[in-house]
Amino acid sequence: MKKEVRTILQNQPVWINDTEVQLVLPAKHLGPVGPFILLDHISSWRQSSNKTASDSPGKCPVPHRGVITVTYIIKGQIEHSDSRGNHVSLEAGCMQWLNAGSGIVCDQDIKPAFKQGETEISVIRAWINPPANQKLHPPEYVSLCHDE
Question: pTM of the full predicted structure?
Answer without folding.
Answer: 0.74
